[in-house]
Amino acid sequence: MFRRGAIGYGVEVYGGTHEQRRAVFEIQFGDPTVYVDARECSDSTSLFRTALLSIADDAERIEQLPSYSGHYLRQELERAGSNFVIEEFDSLPSDARTSVARSMKAIAEGLGSDEVKLGFTTEEGGSVVHAEPDLRMRVRSWEVDPEALRRGPHAPEADKEDSAEDEASGGAHVGPIVFSDPDARRRLQQNGEVVTFRTSERTTGETWWRQTRTGEKMGNCRVEQIGPIDPANRSALREHYRDAGFESAREWENAIKELNGELVEGHLYRVTSDERWAECESCHEYSSDVGAVGRGPDFTYLCPDCRGPPGGDTPAPTDNEAGGNHAE
User: Fold this and answer.
1) Pairing state between β 177-178 and 205-210
2) How far, CA to CA in Å, does 203 sit from each of 74, 92, 114, 239, 299?
3) What percent of the chain is helix, strand and coil (3-state, nearest 5)?
4) What is the CA radius of gyration of the chain?
5) What is the phi/psi pair of residue 50, to 5°?
6) Each residue of 134-165: b (16+ CB within 10 Å) or e?
7) What gap in Å lies between CA 320 and CA 242, rounded to an integer?
8) Can you tell me the distance from the alpha carbon of 253 to that of 169, in angstroms, rounded to the nearest whole number?
9) What spans are recorded as compositionally biased (Basic and acidic residues) (predicted)?
10) Which of 100, 93, 55, 61 is nearest to 77 (CA)?
C-alpha cells in the first residue's frame, strides 16, 4: 500500500473490490476522513454539497452558501483538519469527472495545511488523470494488493524508494512541512528556527519544507514536537510567541482565530534548519546561496544570478559600463 503521494494532489487507488479500495484508505488515512460515494452523485455540485454537509457541523450554514464549490470545500477541510476521499470517481458522467478533477486540482494547490490528504477510488487506474490531463505525474495511482490488506498497515513494502526513505528516517517516513505564511518562512530562513502551530499531529524528524502543498523543495529542516495546545490554557502560546515571529501571544491567538474561525486545539512544533537565507541586494530575492561579492569595505551581497559570469568577483557590467554610451 502507498505511503506517500496523498499529501499533494492526491492518490488514486484502483483494482480489487469497492470494499477493498475503501479499506486501503481506512488503513492509510485513518480519522478524520470524509468519504463521498460518487455513485450517489449526478454532477460536481451534488458531490461537493454532499462533502460539505458531511464535514461541517452546521448544515444550515452550508445550505446558505452561494455555491457548492471546491473553494468552500477547501475551507471546510482546513477548518476540520479532515482528509477527503471520492469513492468510485469513474462512475461519474464524463463532464462531471472533468469538473471534479479540475476542482480537486485547485483544492490541492490552495490548501494551506500539509496534513490534509486527498484520495480517489476507481475501478481502473488512470481515471483521474484522464479526466484532467494536467494532473498527469501529479496524482499517483496504486493498485489494490489483497495480500497487503490481509497483512495490515505495518507489513513490509516492496517500494524500494519508500524503503530507502524509511531506513534513512529510522523506519518512519517524515512528510515535508508547508510554510505558506511568508513571515514564518522568513524567520526559518534567516534565524534557522521557527515555532509553528498545527491543528493536527504530524510526523517529526529530519525532513524538508516547501511553500505550498504542491510546491518544490525549498530546503532541509528538522521538525520537533513541543506539545499540545488547549484553548483553555494559553501558557504555551505566551511562552513561544517570539519564536513564532509574533509581537505578542495575543497577536498569535488572533492569527490562529483568523485561519480557523476560533482558537482551536492543536500542536506546537519547533522547526530548525542549518541553512541560512539572505536577501540579494540587487534583485531583493531571498536565497541560501546569497554571498558577499567584492573586496575590502566595498562588497555587496548577491545571489548567483546577480553575480555575473562564473569566477567573477563583481556583477556583470551593464551596457553602459561596457563602454560606448557614457553620458559624461
Assistant:
1) parallel
2) 22, 35, 11, 23, 43
3) 35, 20, 45
4) 24
5) -60, -40
6) ebeebbbbbebbeebbeeeeeeeeeeeeeeee
7) 47
8) 33
9) 147-158
10) 55
Model confidence over 19-74: pLDDT tens digits? Answer: 999 998 988 888 889 999 999 998 999 999 999 999 888 888 888 888 888 888 98
Give pLDDT tens digits for 147-205: 655 555 443 333 333 333 333 334 446 778 888 788 888 888 888 899 999 877 788 89
Q: Kindly report the CA angle at 228 between 227 and 234, in degrees rounded to 5?
A: 105
Residue 98: exposure state from Cβ atoms within 10 A (0-12, 13-18, ≥19)? middle
In the block, which residue shows the cell 468519504?
35
Long-range contacts of 70-75 (CB under 8 A, 24+ apart): 70/103, 70/104, 70/106, 70/107, 71/106, 71/110, 72/48, 73/48, 73/103, 73/107, 74/106, 74/107, 74/110, 74/111
- Burial class for 6, CB neighbours closer than 10 Å (0-12, 13-18, 19+): buried
Of 47, 40, 140, nearest to 96 by C-alpha is: 47
